[in-house]
Amino acid sequence: MGKRLSKTTKQKIYQRFMSGETNITKLAKNFRLSRKVVYKILKEELQKHSEETLKQIRLKEKKEKEKQQEERKAKAAERRKIRSMFWELKTHVDDFWDHTEYKVADKLNICISEVFRALQNDVKYKKLETLRNKNLEAAMNRLQLQNSISMSKSTRINTTQAVMLSLSVYKHDTAREKLIYSANVERPNDLPEALPVHHFSHMHYLVQQLEEHEEEQAEEMEAQKQEA
After folding, report:
1. What does pTM read for this prediction?
2. DSSP labels for 33-70?
3. Backbone angles phi, psi at 152, to 5 degrees
4. pLDDT tens digits for 89-103?
C-alpha cells in the first residue's frame, strides 16, 4: 500500500513542475515516487488550480458587472438631473442658441459635453434644436440682406460681412457651432475656413443688426410715404 502524501508535498511537486525547473522523472526520483503517481498528483493539482482560477475569474467578472450596472444607474440619474435642470432654467433666449446648457454645466461643475450628451436623446430638445436652426438660418438671411445694403454705401467689409455675403459656400456645423467653408473650389483669401457662431456674441450681434436693419427699413418707408 502506497504512502499517503500530505497536501504540502503535493503542492511542492506541482509548484516545482510549473516553475519549469524540473520534469516528472526527476520529481519521481527526488520524492521517491513512481512517475505514474507524480503524473496523477500533477493532474489533480492542475485541475484544482484551474477550478480556483475559474472561480476567481467568474467572481471578478461578477463584481465588474455589478460595478458597471451601478455606474450606469448613477450616469442615468445624473442625466435625468441635467435634463430636469435644463428645462427648469430654459428661457426664450434658448430658442436662438445654446445658452442654458452652459448655465447647467456651470452649476453642476461638469463638462459641457456631458450636458449635450444628456440632452441629445430628449425629444423636446430635438425639437428645440430644429427651432434654433430655423431661427439661425432666418437671422443669417436677414443679416445677409442688411450687409448687401451696407455694401452699397461702403466698399470695405469685415470678415463677418464677407461670410454673410457668401453663405452659399458655407455649411452650419451644429455639433461644433461653426460655419464651415464647403465649396469644391479653392477658398478665397478674404473668406475664413471656419467662423465660430459664438463670434456673434452668442447671436446678440445678429439680433442687434437685425433690429437696426428693421428700424432703417421702417424709417425709409416712412420717408417714402411723406415724399409721396
Report:
1. 0.44
2. --HHHHHHHHHHHHHHHHHHHHHHHHHHHHHHHHHHHH
3. -75, -15
4. 998 878 877 888 999
